[in-house]
Amino acid sequence: AQSVAQPEDQVNVAEGNPLTVKCTYSVSGNPYLFWYVQYPNRGLQFLLKYITGDNLVKGSYGFEAEFNKSQTSFHLKKPSALVSDSALYFCAVRVTGGGNKLTFGTGTQLKVEL
Amino acid sequence: KAGVTQTPRYLIKTRGQQVTLSCSPISGHRSVSWYQQTPGQGLQFLFEYFSETQRNKGNFPGRFSGRQFSNSRSEMNVSTLELGDSALYLCASSPPLAGAGEQYFGPGTRLTVT
């Protein structure tokens, strides 16, 4: 069975500073990894995904994530945070042959302050 | 292209009643997945439908059921509602790609059971 861990319930960062939201995963087989963001009273918005290839994946709104197979991690990063980035971030994993079933982490609340 | 739409957006029901939620995927998408989001359990996979067939099922009781129509629209039904069924129900659709296409989420239906 696959699982995803987001060890931080909340991350606080000052606007303009770099941000990192952590994610580790556990799967049997090759993972497909995703990051989604959720704003209050909204559905989830896709940010980026790792399927294969380059370990550094670039996504929407200046976000990127680094896939590390040996550490089974897929941390979300942004060089310079904006107040508007404040939201709930979810890491998710899919496995090949598993259809479109996503297993999500518990979410990390990102708060960017002036 | 129009996004994933879900109706109704908000719903209040009484324990013991049943409810039907509707999801219209993005045009051309044939896979529809349903998720339940609660503060306690987070995001949990309910089931996935592809070409009118259930392809995946999560660990939910038989009170939760779904179906998909020939136009890819999907409905989920919850019978004999319990207080614990209060949640945000999210629908997601995926493009018909052989690889790991990302899922596109609707805004959700907020169900409150009293």
What's a quick, concise take on this entry?
Chain A is mainly β and 114 residues long. Chain A is built from no helices and twelve strands. Chain B starts with a strand and ends with a strand.
Plain-language structure description:
- The complex is a heterodimer of chains A (114) and B (114).
- Chain A has 114 residues and is mostly beta strands.
- Helices cover 0% and strands 53% of the residues of chain A.
- Chain A starts with a strand and ends with a strand.
- In chain A, β7 (56-58) and β8 (64-68) form a beta hairpin.
- Chain A is globular and about 45 Å long.
- In chain B, the strands form 2 sheets. In chain B, strands 2, 4, 5, 6, 9, 10 and 11 form a 7-stranded mixed beta sheet that branches. Chain B has a 4-stranded antiparallel beta sheet with strand order 1-3-8-7, with no helix packed on it.
- Chain B contains no helices and 11 strands.
- Chain B is mostly beta strands.
- Chain B has strands at residues 5-7, 10-13, 19-24, 31-38, 42-50, 53-57, 64-68, 74-78, 87-94, 104-105, 109-113.
- Chain B is globular.
- The chains are: A mainly beta (114), B mainly beta (114).
- Chain A binds chain B through residues 32, 34, 36, 41-46, 49, 51, 90, 94, 96, 98-107, and chain B through 4, 31, 33, 35, 42-45, 48, 50, 55-56, 58, 90, 92, 94, 99-108, 110.
Greatest interface and its participating residue counts: A-B, 24 and 27 residues
Q: Secondary-structure element order of chain B, as H and E?
A: EEEEEEEEEEE
* Run of helices and strands of chain A: EEEEEEEEEEEE
The largest sheet of chain B, given as strand count, sense and whether it forms a barrel, is: 7 strands, mixed
Compute the separation of the termini of chain A in Å: 41 Å
Rg of chain B, Å, rounded:
13 Å
Q: For the report, how would you describe the main beta sheet of chain A? A: 6 strands, mixed
Query: How many H/I helical runs of chain B?
Result: 0
- Poorly predicted sequence stretches spanning 5 or more consecutive residues of chain A: none
The helix content of chain B is: under 10%
Structural class of chain B: mainly beta
